Amino acid sequence: MISFKRLLIGRPLKSNELGEQKINKTKALAILSSDALSSVAYGPEQILLVLITLGTAAYWYSVPIAAGVLVLLIALILSYRQIIFAYPHGGGAYVVSMKNLGVNSGLIAGGSLLVDYILTVAVSVSAGTDAITSAFPALHSYNILISIVFVIFITILNLRGVTESASILAYPVYLFVVALFIMIGVGMFQVLTGKVPAELHSPIGTPIQGVTLFLLLRAFASGSSALTGVEAISNAIPNFKDPAPNNAAKTLIAMGILLAILFTGIVSLAYFYGTSPKENVTVVSQIAENIFGRNFMYYFIQGTTALILILAANTGYTAFPLLAVNLAKDKFIPRMFTVRGDRLGYSNGIIILALLSIILIIAFQGKTEQLIPLYAVGVFIPFTLSQTGMIFKWLREKPAGWTYKLIINAIGALICFIVTIMFFITKFLQVWPVLVFIPPIVYFFYKIKNHYDSVGEQLRIQNLEERDDISGNVIIVPVAGITRVVKNSLNYAKSLNPDKVIAVYVAFNREEEKQFEEKWNKWQSDIRLVTLHSQYRSIIQPLTKFIDTVEHKASESNYRVTVVIPQFIVKKGWHNILHNQSSLLIKTYLLYRRNVVVATVPYRFKA
Amino acid sequence: MISFKRLLIGRPLKSNELGEQKINKTKALAILSSDALSSVAYGPEQILLVLITLGTAAYWYSVPIAAGVLVLLIALILSYRQIIFAYPHGGGAYVVSMKNLGVNSGLIAGGSLLVDYILTVAVSVSAGTDAITSAFPALHSYNILISIVFVIFITILNLRGVTESASILAYPVYLFVVALFIMIGVGMFQVLTGKVPAELHSPIGTPIQGVTLFLLLRAFASGSSALTGVEAISNAIPNFKDPAPNNAAKTLIAMGILLAILFTGIVSLAYFYGTSPKENVTVVSQIAENIFGRNFMYYFIQGTTALILILAANTGYTAFPLLAVNLAKDKFIPRMFTVRGDRLGYSNGIIILALLSIILIIAFQGKTEQLIPLYAVGVFIPFTLSQTGMIFKWLREKPAGWTYKLIINAIGALICFIVTIMFFITKFLQVWPVLVFIPPIVYFFYKIKNHYDSVGEQLRIQNLEERDDISGNVIIVPVAGITRVVKNSLNYAKSLNPDKVIAVYVAFNREEEKQFEEKWNKWQSDIRLVTLHSQYRSIIQPLTKFIDTVEHKASESNYRVTVVIPQFIVKKGWHNILHNQSSLLIKTYLLYRRNVVVATVPYRFKA
Predict the structure, then answer these.
(1) What is the tens place of the pLDDT at every residue in A197-228?
(2) Which of B451, B484, B491 minimises the CB distance to A459?
(3) Alpha helix locations (H) across A524-571?
(4) Half-sphere exposure of residue A278: CA atoms within 13 angstroms, side-chain side
C-alpha cells in the first residue's frame, strides 16, 4: 500500500524542501494561464451564437463587441496587477473583499470561487474530452470514463507537487499558443494579400434590422466568458519564486497580452472568413480548416486545443487548495485544508476538488455545456466584489497616485457588475443556481466559524496555576468467560492500583449465571464480580445501565470510571470477520454516549 | 433510527418468547413447500424443451419421463422422511453427509446448499418478476428494481420473525394449489368427456426417428429440476412445533403428494392438449388459456404462479440461516451466524442472503434463466451425498428393518447420482461454475475452522491458579498544546498512580520546540516532557518510534505501556469533520501495530 502510494506520488518531502517547490515565471505562465487562454476556444463562438439571431450580416458587430471585451480585459489585468502588489500573500477576490467590504462580501466571493474552481475542472475536462471524442467518434460512448481518467491523472500530478506538474503541463500550453499564433499569422496574411474573398463578410457599419442594445449587451456578456480564469495568478502569489509579487505581476501582464492577441486574432479571422457557428464543428476548427485544409496543422491545432482545455482544469487544482487554506485559516472551512501532504501540496483540497468535479461530471453525464454561463457568472461575482473592494481601499488609504488607481478599479467594477447583471437578465434559466447555493454556503461558513470559536474558547486555559485533580478511579472490566483474554484485562486493571476493580458478567439465564459465579470464586476471588441478566440477548443494554449507576455514584466524589475492553488483534485482515466485533461496538457506544474512559487492551493471536 | 427499525421489524422479543415462534404443520407446509411446488411451473416445460428437438410427435415420451421423475420424487420423499427421524435437529444433507461420509463430503454438501439457497432467492424472485412484467409489459424496464424490492420485502418479513411471515405467506401458496387443482380438474374433465380433439397428441408408443437414450436421460435430468426444494423441510425441523420430527415428516409427505399431483397433472394436460413450449408464453399459461380462455381463471392462475415463484424465495430465507447456524456451530463459518436478532431470527444469515441474492440479480440483470441448471445441479449434489450417507448409516447401525431402508436410500442415491452426472454431461456450459466455486468454499471452511481451533487453544486457561501479574505501568500522554483537553488527559494519567507519566510533544521546528518547553515548565513542571522533532509533518511517525523505545525497555521489566489519547465528543454529527480525526488514526495505528494499551479519554464540547 505504502509503496503503491510512493510510486504514484513520489517520496515524501521534508518541510524545509518547500522552497524548491516554488515556480518561476515561465512555468507559472503555463500553469496559471491555461484556464484563461483556453477560454478563447469558446469565447468568440459565444458572441456569434448571439449575433446569428440577427442574420449573418450582423457578424460585423463582433468586432466592436470584441473591442469591448478587450477593454474589460485590460481593466481586469490592470486591476488585478494592483491587487497583487496590495495583497502579496494571495487570496485574490476573497482576501480583497473580506478586508475592504466586510465578512459577508468576502464569504460570497470565497464561496463563489470555491464552487467555480470545481466547475472549472468539470467543464474544462468535459470540453476537452468532447474535442477528443469528436476527432475519434468510436470513443464517444466512453466520454464520462475518459473525463474521469483525466481528472484522476491531473489529481495525481498535483499530489506529486506543483513543480513536477509544471514541467509536464507547460509544453501543451506553449504548443497551443504557438499553434494559434501560426494560424492567426497565416490567416491574416491570406486576408491582407486578398486571398480571402471580400464577399465573405459584410463591411463594418452595415445597418442591421432589429438590432437592440439588449442583444448587443447579451453578446458582450457571452463573449466575456473568454475572460474566465484571469484571476488565477493573483490567488497563487505564494507559489511564485521571490520576489513573488513582481514575478506574479509580470506573469499577469504576459498572460493578458497573449489572451488579447489570441482573442482578437480569432474574432478577426472569424469575421473575415464569415464563419458561422455550427452544431458539431467549433468556430476555431472551421477557421483552421479554411486556412490549412484538413492537413497536419489542422490536427495540431485541434489536438493542442483539446489538451489545453483539459489542462485548464489544472488551474482549479492550483487555485482551489490555496483559497481553501485562506478560508480554513480564517476558520470558515474545516482545518484539514491547511495540512500539507507528503509532497507538500495541500492534499485534502486537491482530493476534495477531484471528488466533487468527478461527481459533477457523472451527474451531468459529461454534458457540461449548460454549466458555462453558471461558471462565468460565478467568476464575475468575485471580480465585481474584489474591484469594488479596491475602490474602498483607495478611498480609505489614499496612497500616492490613488485617483488613477481608483479610476481603473472603478471602471473594472462597473463593467464586471454590468456583465454579472446581464448574465442574470439574459441567461437566468442557467445561472439561477448561484442564488440558491451561495446563501447556504455562506451560512455554513458562519456555522463552522462559530463552532471553532466556541471550541477555542472552551479549550483555552486562562490560569496556568488552576488545578482540578481527580480524586480516584473505578475500573470496570466486562468479562465474557474464563479465558486468557479476560485474565489479561484483569491483570492490567489491577496493575493500575485503582480504588476499585469491578468485573461484570452478562448472563442470559439463571443457570449460566450461577455456574459462572462458582467458577469465578475459584479463580479471581479477590475481584468483585457483578452478574447482570439480559432478556434480549443484548450485552450493551444491561452493561451501559450498570455503568450509568457506577458513573453516577463516582462523579459525586470526583472519581473517574474506566472501562477496560479487550481487542483481539488478528494476524490476517480477514480474520476480523471471524470475531464478533462487539468490543468495537461497545467501545464506540460507551465513548460517545457515556462519560467514561475506555482503555483498550490488545490481545494478539499467534495465528 | 431505533423507532424506524422497530416500525420495520417490530418490538424486540425476549429470549424466552422463542417457543411462540415455532410453526404448525399447515403453516410449515406453506412456508417450506413454496420452492418445491413452484418448480412445477417450469419443470414440465424443461422436459418438452428437450423433446421438441425430435419433433412434436415425440411429446408422448414426456409421460414415461414424468413417471421416472415421480419415482425419483417418491425415493426422495421416503429418503428424507428417514433423515428427519434419524436427525431430528435438522441440518439435512450437511449433517447427514458430515456424520456418515466425513468432513469433506459434509462441507461439499453444506457449501453447495449455501450457494444454492442464494440461487433459490435470485432465480425465484427474477422468474416471478418476469411473470408479472409479462402481464404488464409497461413495467418491463423496471425488472431489476422490482426484483430487488421483492427481496427487500421478503427480508423484512423474515427479520420480523417466521410466524408472522407464515401468516402472510401461507395464503398465496394455498391459492396456487387450489388454482392448479381447479385447472387440472376442469382440464381432465374436458379430456375425459372427449372435448379435446384426439389429433392434438400422438398416441403413447408412436415410434420416433432419432430417439436416443442420451436424449431421454437429458429430458429426465431437465424434468428433475421440478424437484428442487424438497430438502427444505428436513433442514428446518427445529422450526416445527413439538413433536417436531413427526410434524415435519407429515408435512413432507403432504408436500410430496401435492407435488406429485401437480406435476403429473400438468404433464398430462400438456400431453393431451399437445402443448409446445414457446419463447414468450409458458406452458402453464398456454394450458390455462386452452382450458379457460383469457378470463378471470386464467389471470388467477398466472397471478398465483407469479406469487408463488416470488414466495419460493422465502424457502431460502428459512433454510439458509439454519444451515448457517449448523456450519457456524461447527466453526466452519463466522460465529456471527449463530446470533439471534431482536425478533429471534438469525438476522445475520437473513441479511447476508438478501445482499448476495441482490448482487446476483444485479450481476445477471435479472435474466437468471441460465442459472436454473446450475441451481438444479447444486441441489442434486447434496441429494446424492445425503442419501449415500444414509446407506453408510444403515450398513453401520443395522437397525430393525434396515434392508428396506437401505434399498430406498440406495435407489435414491443412484438416481440422484445419475441426474447429477447427466447435468454435467448434457449442460456442462451452464454448470461448470460448481466445479470452480465449491473447492475454494470448502478450502475457506477449513481455514476458518483452523483459525477458531487455534484461537480456542490460545485462550484456554489450563491452570486456574497460574498468575502472571504486571510489575508496573508507564503512561505516555501525547500533548498537542496547552489546552483543557491536554489538562484533562494529564489529570487522568496522574490519577492512575502509575510508576511514570511521560508527556510527548511533536514539534515541527526548533523554535516552536523551545517555546513549548518553556511554557510547559511553568505549567506542568512535575511531569516529564519529551519533545520530538518531525521533518515530515507527520505526528504518528516520531510518536511510534518513541513509543517503541519505551515499550522495549518497559517489557524487559514486565511493565506495561499505556498511551492516553483524548477524543473530542462533538454535539452534532457534522462537527466531526471540523476536527482532525488524527486521534482516531493514532489510536487505531497504535493498537494494531504496537503492543500498548490505548486509553481513550472523552472530551465533550458544549457546542
Answers:
(1) 877 788 888 888 888 888 888 888 888 888 88
(2) B484
(3) 540-556
(4) 11
